């Protein structure tokens, strides 16, 4: 008997092991004693924390009812602010996700309910369009309607077809064309348009009122006139100040020049002479300069090009030069 008992026990154990293995394979998780124990410790910890908070605040006798009230109010305020923040976040999310997301949700709902999104529903609608499935009605479209459609297609030029195609594509992409907009966006657009029209209307009415009123017209005219006079005055003053500044600059330059000359009297001779000559050349002008250059190279300008006065002056200069050379030779 004893041997049989042991055999039975071993068999039981083996079966239990197999069962456990099977459970592990299937991924079924069993609640163990350890888990329960852990949960108990967690609750204990929470209770302790609660108590700690109370201990830190002080005993019930120490805290006056006024203090308690203030604490409660503070908590409520904090809660309210937190809720406000959360609400704002959700609102923002909703705002962002409006349109496409909402539409997809609705479509899914309809599909679940077997609404217009399903294939069956679409087929049903198409049948109704064709006139099938309804008793006492003609099946298919009449020849007249078909002929009309064909004529319309013929009339459609290549351009209109292209346009229609582009519009369709744009609606698909939501980039090239406007496509389907959310009701919120549509509402906003309408509001904006109304505001713009109102503004324009207001401006027009104001203008018309002004034009009709003679007093306002006269005032506007007077203002315009005064403004013009003011501008002229300002320009005049500006011109005067500019002249004054330029004069001061010139005077300052001259003063500096004189001071420099005083400081360095020897080195000025040659430079001054060159400057003077340069100035004289500039004053004589292009033609005269050309003549002088020609003279330096040993060429004489033709009498035809010269005026009488200039010719006489040249002769006088030549005479003077000859006399100077003569004196130098003596």
Walk me through the structure.
The protein is mainly α and 330 residues long. The chain is elongated. It has 12 helices and no strands. Residues 1-17, 27-55, 88-113, 159-175, 184-196 have a biased composition (Basic residues). Residues 71-87, 114-135, 143-158, 197-218, 228-264, 271-285, 310-321 have a biased composition (Basic and acidic residues). Residues 1-330 are annotated as: Disordered.
Salient structural properties:
single chain; mainly alpha; 12 helices; about 0% strand; about 325 residues
List the helices and strands and how they pair.
Elements: H1 2-26, H2 33-57, H3 65-97, H4 100-113, H5 119-130, H6 143-155, H7 158-173, H8 183-212, H9 214-263, H10 268-284, H11 286-296, H12 308-329
In short, what is this structure?
The chain has 330 residues and is an all-alpha fold.
Strand content: under 5%
Percent helix, as a range, is over 70%
| Rg over alpha carbons | 54 Å
The end-to-end span amounts to 174 Å
What is the N-to-C order of secondary-structure elements (H for helix, E for strand)?
HHHHHHHHHHHH
Q: Poorly predicted ranges (pLDDT <50, ≥5 residues)?
A: none
Write down how many β-strands occur, each being a DSSP E stretch of 2 or more residues.
Answer: 0
């Amino acid at each position: 008997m004893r041997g049989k008992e042991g055999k039975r026990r071993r068999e039981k154990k083996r079966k239990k092991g197999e069962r456990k293995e099977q459970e592990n394979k299937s991924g079924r998780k069993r609640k163990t004693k350890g888990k329960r124990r852990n949960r108990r410790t967690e609750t204990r910890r929470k209770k302790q924390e609660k108590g700690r908070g109370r201990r830190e605040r002080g005993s019930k006798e120490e805290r006056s009812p006024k203090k308690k009230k203030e604490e409660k109010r503070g908590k409520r305020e904090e809660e309210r602010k937190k809720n406000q923040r959360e609400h704002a976040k959700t609102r923002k999310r909703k705002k962002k996700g409006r349109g496409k997301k909402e539409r997809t949700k609705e479509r899914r709902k309809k599909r679940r309910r077997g609404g217009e999104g399903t294939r069956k529903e679409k087929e049903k609608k198409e049948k109704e369009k064709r006139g099938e499935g309804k008793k006492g009605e003609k099946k298919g479209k009449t020849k007249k309607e078909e002929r009309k459609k064909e004529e319309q297609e013929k009339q459609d030029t290549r351009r209109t077809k292209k346009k229609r195609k582009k519009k369709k594509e744009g609606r698909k992409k939501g980039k090239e064309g406007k496509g389907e907009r959310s009701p919120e966006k549509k509402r906003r657009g309408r509001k904006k348009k109304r505001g713009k029209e109102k503004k324009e209307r207001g401006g027009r009415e104001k203008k018309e009122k002004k034009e009709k009123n003679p007093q306002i017209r006269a005032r506007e005219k007077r203002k315009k006139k005064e403004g013009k006079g003011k501008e002229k005055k300002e320009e005049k003053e500006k011109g005067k100040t500019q002249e004054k500044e330029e004069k001061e600059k010139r005077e300052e330059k001259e003063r500096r020049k004189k001071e420099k000359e005083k400081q360095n009297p020897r080195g000025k001779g040659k430079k001054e002479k060159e400057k003077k000559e340069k100035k004289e050349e500039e004053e004589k002008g292009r033609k005269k300069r050309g003549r002088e250059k020609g003279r330096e190279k040993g060429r004489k300008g033709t009498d035809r090009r010269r005026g009488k006065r200039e010719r006489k002056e040249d002769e006088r200069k030549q005479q003077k030069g000859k006399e100077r050379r003569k004196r130098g030779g003596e």
